[in-house]
Amino acid sequence: MTIFVDTSALYALLDEDDRNHRKAADLWAATVPTAYLATHAYVVIETSALVQRRLGMGAVGQLHDGLLAAVETAPIDLTTHHVAVTRWLGSGVRHLSLVDVTSFVFMSQSGIDRALAFDDDFIDAGFELVR
């Protein structure tokens, strides 16, 4: 089984003060040994910037050298990028980010239906969250 890993889960794993930290740690411990974890480059960039700004470079090292070692990171090709931008602009939803829409497109293209995330936009887009 493949599970998509979102910024919201990666960040919660690193920030012990995050309201989802304990849940993220429990879900991570349960899924890493049993599932294939995947994400894409835009999530890595988004998470890296967020972690750097809020938690510092030490936490960025934990992200890249620790957490992401267990996650296959796919590049986003030009076609996927264009599809995501078109859907994002067409959605008219202000709170939905380009990274979120790219995740939805990537998941659909990859046949992934479950996400390790704390973002209900995945549910709204027709995906299931790992609980």
Describe the structure.
The mean pLDDT is 97. The protein has one domain (2-129): Rossmann fold (3-Layer(aba) Sandwich), CATH 3.40.50.1010. Helix content is 56%, strand content 14%. The chain is α/β, with parallel strands linked by helices. A 5-stranded parallel sheet has the order 3-2-1-4-5. Helix 1 (7-14) crosses helix 2, helix 1 runs parallel beside helix 3 (41-55) and helix 5 packs across helix 6. The protein has 7 helices and 5 strands.
Question: Which helices and strands, and how do they pair?
Answer:
Elements (H helix, E strand, L loop, with lengths): L1 E4 L1 H8 L6 H11 L4 E5 H15 L1 H9 L5 E4 L3 H14 L6 H13 L3 E3 L4 H4 L3 E2 L2
Parallel strand pairs: 1-2, 1-4, 2-3, 4-5
